[in-house]
Specification:
It contains eight helices and five strands; from the N terminus they run H-H-H-H-H-E-E-H-H-E-E-H-E. With about 190 residues, it is of the alpha+beta class. Helix 2 runs parallel beside helix 4. Its main location: membrane.
Length: about 190
């Protein structure tokens, strides 16, 4: 009676428990071998790999159609691909294919409209990110960057009034507006 209420025989439930434990242990071993970067969400590929790892783990844990060996091999291949791409992405052209480049959304109080469109963000999205960053006055904002991970970095005035270090922005699309006196095309927020 109790087994019928659960919807699965005890043998199937035991198999799920064993598979879940084993695939979890395989995930730990692979992530220890691959290193800390294996779950870091630095690039769009890292995010996709993390989602795929979760999907393989879940499918292997609860599906009777996917064997434990198939799940372990799938995890291994995914970790190997992630490791390989991390190694070769420094080569010319590879990084442009694998990574999104950060995008400058705001310089001072001036919003770069074309970059908002390109980043699929609205002015209200930027205002929300400014609030979340603890910005209480717009005149304190120096730059807002949509990072390659989809997160938004808000840079505000520092107490010493030091200029922004240009080397931090060389990979950011539109960074040249941070270096010059000319305002980017756009309107104040």
């Amino acid at each position: 009676m109790f087994v019928a209420q659960l919807g699965s025989p005890w043998a199937t439930l035991a198999l799920v428990a064993v598979s879940t434990t084993a695939i979890y242990l395989a995930l730990i071993v692979y992530s220890r071998l691959a290193g800390l970067r294996s779950f870091a969400q630095m690039t769009n590929f890292d995010v996709a790999a993390t989602v795929a790892l979760g999907s393989i783990t879940a499918t292997t844990a609860v599906s009777t159609e996917v064997s434990l060996l198939q799940g372990a091999v799938g995890l291994g291949v995914l970790f190997a691909l992630q490791w390989l791409i991390a190694r070769v992405r420094k080569a010319d052209g590879v990084q442009d294919v694998v990574d999104n480049r950060p995008l400058l959304l705001m310089v001072g109080t001036n919003v770069i409209e074309e970059n908002l469109v390109q980043g699929q963000m609205t002015r209200d999205d930027v205002r929300a990110k400014l609030r979340l960053a603890g910005v209480t006055r717009l005149d304190r904002v120096r730059a807002v960057v949509l990072e390659s991970t989809g997160e938004v970095s808000v840079l505000t005035d520092d107490p010493g009034g030091e200029p922004l270090d240009p080397s931090l922005f060389t990979s950011v699309r539109g960074y040249e507006w941070l270096l010059g006196e000319q305002l980017p095309p756009g309107k104040p927020l």
